[in-house]
Amino acid sequence: MENISSRENFGSKFGIWAVAAGSAVGLGNIWRFPYLTGKNGGAAFIILYLFIVVFIGLSAMLCELAIGRRAQKNSFGAFKLLSPNGKWHYVGLLGVVASFMIFSFYSNVAGWTLEYIWQSVTGAFMGKSNQQLSQSFNLFIANGPRTIFWTLVFMLMTAFIVMSGITKGIEKYSKIMMPALFVIILILDIKALTLEGSNKGLEFLLYPDFSKITAGVVVDALGQAFFSLSLGMGVLITYGSYIGKKDNLGSTALSVSLTDTLVALLAGVMIFPAAFAFGIQADAGPGLAFISLPAIFQQMAGGQVFAFLFFVLLAIAALTSTISLLEVVVAYFVEELKMTRKKATLIAVASMSLLGILSSLSFGPLKEITLFGKTIFDLLEFTSSNLLLPIGGLFIVLFVGWFFTTKELQLELSNNGSLKARFFPVFLFIVKFIAPLAIILVFLNGLGLF
Ligand code: TRP
Hints:
This protein is mainly alpha-helical. The protein has helices at residues 13-24, 27-39, 43-71, 75-82, 89-122, 130-142, 144-163, 166-193, 199-206, 215-228, 235-240, 249-277, 292-297, 303-336, 341-361, 376-403, 406-413, 424-446. Helix 1 crosses helix 8 and helix 5 (89-122) packs antiparallel against helix 14. Tryptophan is lined by residues 23-24, 26-29, 102, 227-228, 230, 232-233, 235, 321, 324-325, 389. The site of tryptophan has 17 residues, from helix 1, helix 2, helix 10 and helix 14.
């Protein structure tokens, strides 16, 4: 057994917030949330989403933080320690595998943001028609060498930060990147709201049309909440293990969920007014960020600067998320396979990059290689987000709800009785009953059985 005191802890409350909110805030907020909102009818979807975050997401997040801090270990080691004779450590292992897969395809999209930062510097999309923009995006993602190059650059940036350690790497850089992210998103929001014709976009965000809410939309919102809050894969177990015994887990979960939701909403406030002002479809789908937004930027005064800021924003958001994904794997390698942090990071990134390269190529040269009609990228996305994530999340809440003793859980959440933790009874009810049920529904929907 290694010495627990040799483990690094986060240095400050602000650091804990920056790191955990950094994981949560990502492409999921700025790219996925707006297009889901657009597709599912605006305000009504947002209200539903808020409801789910408050009543399910928050509790599920608290479960992960509690497991991690209780055990002071990586997600595999945590289950092994808390249930030495059980099979629960497979849940931890599942998280490691899922992080591996998400990291690979997520770095592809993150790499695209680097290409678009470059294009906004050179002014490549200025003066192009919507059709030309869509064409050049499709040509770019099919260009193997170019997308591989950016994927690898992004992975190396992530590796550099993770290799530098918990406080000197992950925490230090998150404390710079998260405030920068807020500054940029606020600048872009102000710009969007001052555009002529932006009112329609705000209306879309503010006036709910509940007739758009169907069972499928509810499940979409649940899945998005899980993805956006980084739940179900042991990211927050791993980060929870670096949280000191005196810190307040309840308020950490609250501030992280609030930040994540706020950034998603701010992304909506940035995108919809701009989209309506320039007559771009709000439900444009995944291409929204890389096709529709450049179309807007190049019609706008100062567009090149705003485009640059937007893609830097996306890249920062993605980077603070990829470091959390890589850390899950690295913490596992370091603690279970006894590697040094440097070696663990290099081996993890080298092997993930192979999958990342295959996944980049699946938009071009390897497009024809499919399984169940899905390309490599789609398979990685589908398997991790729709299968592994809900399965992991389900077992995590079941573990906390039914395996932990109530006493043990209460002690962990109240720092051995020094905090009041008044939310406890409600939390316990959600974790035992509501959350497992909700997750099973997401899962069945993800499989298309619902
Ligand atoms: N939450 C991130 C986003 O919104 C993505 C992410 C990072 C994630 N780590 C995760 C999703 C762990 C699920 C599990 O983009």
